[in-house]
Structures
1.
Amino acid sequence: MSFKPANNIQDLQYFGEFGGVNPSISDSSTYTFLSAKTMFDTFEGNADGCYLYSRHSSPSNLYLGEALAAMEGTETATVTSSGMGAITPVIMQLCSSGDHVISSRTIYGGTYAFLKNFTPRFKIETSFIDITKLDIVEASITKNTKVIYCESVSNPLLEVADIKGLADIAKRHNLKLVIDNTFSPLSISPAKLGADVVVHSLTKFINGSSDTVAGVICGTQEFIDDLRNVNDGACMLLGSTMDSLRSASVLKNLRTLHIRMQQHSLNAAFLAEKFEKDGLKTVYPGLKSHPSHNLFKSMMYDKYGFGGMLTIDVGSIDKANELMELMQEKNLGYLAVSLGFYKTLFSAPGSSTSSEIPDEEREAMGLSDGLIRFSIGLDADIERTYNMMRECMVKLNVLDPRISELG
Ligand SMILES: *Cc1c(COP(=O)(O)O)cnc(C)c1O
C-alpha cells in the first residue's frame, strides 16, 4: 500500500472505554501494578503495554503520537508540551559535550537562540549556514559533527531544504538529519525523503486552533525509546510532557488537517499570485519566481499545495506596522505571531519572532525590516479578502494601483 499521510491518519481506529468513537482520555498521572515484578520491568523498559507514570508515557499521548507517526511515516513518535520541548531534547539526546551541529541560518528564532546561546554552555557548537547550498553543508562537516538541522520550509524566509540531498550527505558522514516540518505538514514527508528525525510545533497548523502549545518528535522506535529512557532520556529527564487532556484535543483537530491545509494553500497561492502581479516583492514557494519552486514541487504531495505561509516586503518597519494595523482594523486578520489559525495572522519577523537573530546576520540572510510574514487563514471568499487587502495597501502607498491595472 502506498504511503499517503492523510490516509494513514484516517485509517487509524481507536475506541473509547465504553465503545466511544473517540479514545478515552487517561486522566491519571500514575498507574497501579498487579505485581511488584511488573513495576520493576516497566522501569527497566521491558513491560510492553504497561504505564508507569505520565511523564514517561500515557495512553492519550501514545494515541496522538501514533497518529503523528502515521502521518510522517516513522516507526513511532512522542508528543511534548511545546515545539521547543520537542527540538531541545532531540539535540541534547544526539549531542554530547564537544559535538558540533550544522544548522540552517534561517530557522525559528527560539531554535536559533537555543543553538547559538544555550548549547554552547554544554560545549555543543553550531555552524549556521545556507542550507540550500549542499556543497557548503558538506564543507562545514567536522570530525565532531553529529547533526544536520533545518526546517523543510524555513521560518520566516520560506527557503526550501533539499531533504533528499541533505539525507544523502548525512548518510555518507554518519550524521543524523533532523527536520522541523512545522510549515509543511502533509505537503512534505521528510522521513520518506530520508530524514532521521522529524519534529513539529503542533501549536501551528497541526492543531490549528491557536488554543494550545504542543510538539512532537517522530523517529525510529529505538530513538524514541532512548528519549524516554528513565536513566538518560532527554524527554524523560527534561520533562516537557504534554498533558493528556491536551493531547486528546490535538488528536481531534488533527483529523481535519488535510482539509485545512488544502484551504490554507489555495488561499495563500491566490494572494501570492495577486500580490506579485501588483508589483509587491512576494515570497511563496508556489510562485514560479521562488528559487526553490521546482524543488518543493519534486518533494510535495500535490493535493496539499505549497502551504499557507507567504511574505511580502513593504520596504520599512514603519510601513509594515502601519499596514498590519490597518488590516487588523478591517478585520482581515490579526497582528499576532504564530501560524496555522483559521484567521490570517501577520507579523514583522525582524521585530518579533526573529528578533533573537542579530541585525548583521538578519541582513546577511535577507531578513529585511519591511518583511511581513502572513499565515493565510481559511477565508471562504479569498477574492474579497484580496480586494480589501489591496485597498489597505493602496491607501498606504505600499502598492501603486496603476501597476496591477496596467498588468
Ligand atoms: C513555533 C515554531 C517552533 C516552536 O514551537 P512552540 O510550540 O512555540 O514551542 C519551532 N519551529 C517552528 C518552525 C515554529 O514555527
Note: The first strand starts at residue 76 and ends at 80.
2.
Amino acid sequence: MQLSGQQYQIQGLNVLDICQQFGTPLYVYDADVIIRQINNLKSAFNTVPLRIKFACKALTNISVLKLMQTQGIGIDAVSVAEARQALLAGFKPKDITFTSNGVDFSEIQEAVELGVSINVDNLPTLELFGKIFGNTVPCCIRLKPNIRAGGNAKIQVGHEHSKFGIPLAQLPDVHTLVTKYNIVINGLHIHTGSDILDPEAFIQGANVLFTVAKEFPDLAFIDFGGGFKVGYKKGDKTTNMPDLGEKLSAAFKEFCKDYGRELEMWFEPGKYLVSECGVLFVKANQVKQTPSITFVQVNSGLNHLIRPMMYDAYHEIVNVSNPAGELKTYDVVGYICETDTLGSDRQLNEVRADDVLALLNAGAYGFTMSSQYNARFRPAEVLVYKGEARLIRERETMEDILRNQILLDF
Ligand SMILES: *Cc1c(COP(=O)(O)O)cnc(C)c1O
C-alpha cells in the first residue's frame, strides 16, 4: 500500500474504493508483493538448485496458493487438509511436502496415498513408517539443531526444550531404524523458528545439517526451513537476503563437493512471502475519550488478527481516510469481550467515527489464525492482481456460525 498524493493505493487502486466495494473488515492482498518476495528469494540463491516451498499455514486461501503455483514454487503443508487445498489449487503431489508434527499415523498414510513427500519428526513415527513402507517410500527427517533463534519465545522452535524435531542425540536410533527397515532418507530438515534476523543462525543450523548429512547417503535435498525476519515496525531490520544467499550458497556448494553430489537447497518461508502483501482494513466504530486514553474502537479484533494479543506482535496502523489529519495518540482496540488491543499508544492522523484504518503486514498468520469467537463473522478476502481487486473469499454470515451445530429437541 502506498500513499499517492492524498490517497492510499494498492496497484493504483484507491483502497477506500476497495473497502467501499467489499465492506470492512477486509483482508486485501497485493499479488505484486508476493511475486516480488518470491523473486527476491530466487535471486539471492540463484547459484544453487533452490526449491521454495511456501509454508502455506501463513495464508491458505486457494487463490493465493494458485498464484504461488504460477510462480513455480512448491508447498509445505502441516496437515493433510492443507495438502489437499494445495492439490486443489493446482500443485502436483511431488511439489508438496507434508511436515507432520505429532500427527496420528493415519494422516501420514493419507499423505503418502496422495503422493506428497513426507517429513517425519519423531522416532515412533519413523519406526511405523519403516514397518509399513520399508524402502518403497522415501522420507525426510526433521532434526532439532539445539539452536535458539527467533523473535519471541513462542516462535523459537529449534532449541533443546522444543517439541519439534528429532534431537541430534537420537541420531543413533534413527540409524538403527533406517537399517532395520531399509528406509530411504531423501532429505534432512530443520526449522529453527520465526523472525530470525541473523544470517549466522541459518549458517549455524546449516553446519549442523552438513555434519549429519554425511551419515545419510541417499539425500536429494536439505531443507533449511523458514523463519526469515520481515519488518513490522518502521525501521525494523529484516533478514538481509542477498547477504544470507551469498554466505549460505557458498557453504552449501562446499558441502556438496564434500558430499560428492549436488543436492537441492530447500526453504519453507511463510511470513517472508506473504506478510507484507496483506492489509487488514477495519472501520472505526467510535472514538472513545477517557481521562487517560483515547480509544479507537474498531469493527474487528483478536478474532481476525490475533498476533498482537498472542505474540505481542506490532502491526503498523494507518488512518487511510484522513492522511492529512493532525497526529494524535490513540489505543486501537477491538470489539471482542476480552482485553483486545490491536495497537497501543499509536500516533495516527486524527480518527473520526467511520474512518477506515489499515493494519499493515497482516498477510501472514492473519486470516489463517482467525476465529468465530464472540460469534463474529470472519472477514472477506480480496486479491489485487494485475490492477484488479478480486474477491477470493466471501464474508461469513449467520449460516457459517450455525454450520454443524445441532439444536436438540428437549
Ligand atoms: C511455520 C513454519 C514455517 C514458516 O515460518 P515463517 O516464520 O512464517 O517463515 C516453515 N516451516 C515449518 C515447518 C513451519 O512450521
Note: The domain at 31-274 is CATH 3.20.20.10 (TIM Barrel).
3.
Amino acid sequence: MSDLNNDQKKTVRRRTIISFAVFAACIVAVVIGWWKLYNQPQDSGVQRTLRKGLEVNEKVFEKVYDTTHLAKTYPKSAAVKEVRVNGDVGMGKDFNAKVWVLRVVRKPGDTLYVPLDSIRALPKTEIVFDFKCIEGWSQVTHWGGVRFSDFLAHYGLRDQASKKYAGLITPDKAYYVGIDMPSMINPQTLLCYEMNGKALPDDQGYPLRLIIPVKYGVKHLKRIGAIYFQDEKPADYWAEQGYDYYGGL
Ligand SMILES: Nc1nc2c(c(=O)[nH]1)N[C@H]1C(S)=C(S)[C@@H](COP(=O)(O)O)O[C@H]1N2
Ligand SMILES: [Mo]
C-alpha cells in the first residue's frame, strides 16, 4: 500500500467498502430467502418453490427421456445370492396366492384375467442389473419373466400401449405406482416371476412383480394385483410422499 498515492488509496478503500457491503447484502438475501422457503406452505410434502423445481425437472425429463435407454447388465455370476428385502406395503399376510390371477384392465369395465401359468408360458427374458433404491443402497440381482412389451403384443393390447401411462397396484390396493409408457415398453421391463432362476420368494413379490431397470426401486412394485392404462398420471404411493414421479435413472 505504501507505493500507492493518495488517490489510489482512496480507490482501494472505496472498493473495499463496496465489496464488504455487497457481501453483507448477499448474506442478508440468503438468510431472508432461506427463511421464506422454510416457512412456505407445503405442496405434497415439499416446500412450494422446491416442488416447482421438481415439476420443471419432471417436464424436462419427460421431453428428453430416451425410450431406448438401457440399464447396464452383468453376467449371472455377478448376482448376489442374499437379495435384500425392502418395503412390504401391500404385502399383508391375508393374501391367497392360490386364487391369484393378474387383472389387466383394458378399459374401465373391461378386464382380462391372466393366470400365472399363462404368463410363464410366454417367452422368458432374464436380466442381471444393479438394482438401485433411493435410500442409497444397490445390489446386482438376477430376475426372469416376460417382457412387458411381449405380454402386450401377445394379448393384443395395442390401444392400451398407446396410452401415456400404466398404473400398477397390489391386490389389497395398499401400494401403487404410475409409470410412463416408454419405460413400460422398454425391452428390459419385465413382469417378473423368477429370482436367481427360482420362483420369486413371497417377500420379493410372489407370484408376480415388476422389474423395471431404468427406474429406482420404488417403481418395482411387488405382488402385482392389477394393471391399468390411462393418459392421466396414475396415483403413485411415493410421489404422494413428495418423491419424483418418474423415478428414472
Ligand atoms: N408392494 C410393494 N412393492 C414394493 C415396495 C413396497 O413397499 N411394497 N417397496 C419398493 C422399494 S422402495 C424397493 S427398493 C423395492 C425392493 O425390492 P426387494 O424387496 O425385492 O429388494 O421394492 C419396491 N416395491
Ligand atoms: Mo426403495
Note: The pocket of molybdenum atom (ligand 2) is lined by residues 86-87, 133-135, 217-218 (CB under 6 Å).
4.
Amino acid sequence: MLFDYITHPSPTPEAERLAAIADPGFGKCFSDHMVVIDYDEAKGGWFSAALGPRKPIPLDPAASVLHYAQEIFEGMKAYKLDGGTMALFRPEENARRFNASARRMAMPELPEKLFLESIRKLVEQDKSWFPPVEGGSFYLRPFMFASEAFLGVRPAKQYKFVVIISPSGSYFKRGPAPVKIWVSQDYVRAAPGGTGAAKTGGNYAASLVPQAEAIEQGCDQVVFLDAVERKWIEELGGMNLFYVFDDGSVVTPPLTGTILPGITRDSLIQLIREEGLELREEPYSIDQWRADAESGKLLETMACGTAAVVTPVGTVASHDGEFTIGSGGPGQLTMKLREKLVAIQRGAMEDTHGWVMKLD
Ligand SMILES: *Cc1c(COP(=O)(O)O)cnc(C)c1O
C-alpha cells in the first residue's frame, strides 16, 4: 500500500520540542506526526494510508467505538542504539498480537507488513523527537477502532488504524523501586471466555476502580485473581508476574485465555531457561504466595511489561493483611534479568535471539 505524505503546516518549533523531550515523563508528551490507515468493507478492506500531522480525528457521534467499545491497541518501544540507529524490540510479536486482539473483537486484521511499515515510517519521520535522556525511548501506540456511524449491535464495517508516538523518559527516576501491590478481592479483570487475552480498552476501563482502590490502600498497583475460584493469581493491571523460589525454580501463570500474553513475559521465559533455571508455567494461588513468602521459600516476585520492563514486587496487601517478599527490596534474579533485557533492547549486549529490529 502506498502512503500519502501530508506536510505538517506548523511543526513544533525546535526550542519547544527540545524543552518537551528534555523531561518527557511517561505518556504525556507526543511527537508531531501520526499514521492513519482506513478500512471500509465496501471498499474491499484497507484502502488509504497516510503519514501526516498529529491532530484530532473527526468522529461521528454514532461511531460504534463510542457505544460498543470495538477498540484494540498495542504498546511497544523504539530505542536508540549506541551509534544512533533506531531499533524496535520484537515488533513482529506486537503485529501478531494485534491481530489476535482484532479477531477476538470481531475487527479486521491488519497485514503484519503494513503494521510494521507504519511504525517504521513514523519513527523515521519523528526521530528528532527522541528524548536525549538516560533510559529514554519512544513509546509507540498503535490502535484501531470502529468508526462506522451505526447504532445496531454488530461488528462495524469501517475502522481506523492509527499510530502515535509518545517520547518517554525512564519509567523509574532512580532505578526500579519495589512496588506494593493490592490484591483485588471484590473485582476481577477477566473471566474464562471473556476478553482478558485481548489488548482491548474495555479491560482497562474495568480495572480503574480496583486500581483506585489500590491507591487508596497506599499501594502502587492492583493484582487480580481468577474470576471463578478467586484463588489463582493472574496478573497486574498491565504487567505479568513471575515467582522465584529458593530451589532455583521460577513459576509464571499459564496463558489460559484470561491473562494478556506479554512479550516481555515470553522474553523472560526464554532468558530464565537460558540461565539454566527451571521455568514452570503453572497456576499459583494467593494462599500459597503468602505461605511461601512467610516461610522464606519464595525469594522474589517480579512484574514485567513493555513500559516498566521488569519491576520487583516488595509487599502484597489485602483485606487480610500484608506480607513482604524476601527483604522487601529488589531481588537478585529480578535485577539480573532486568539488566540483561535492557542491555539487549538497547544494543549493549549481543542479540542472540534475533529480537532487535534495526530501523536504518
Ligand atoms: C500489555 C500488557 C501486558 C504486558 O505485555 P508486554 O507485551 O510485555 O508489554 C501485561 N498485562 C496486560 C494486562 C497488558 O495489557
Note: The mean pLDDT is 96.
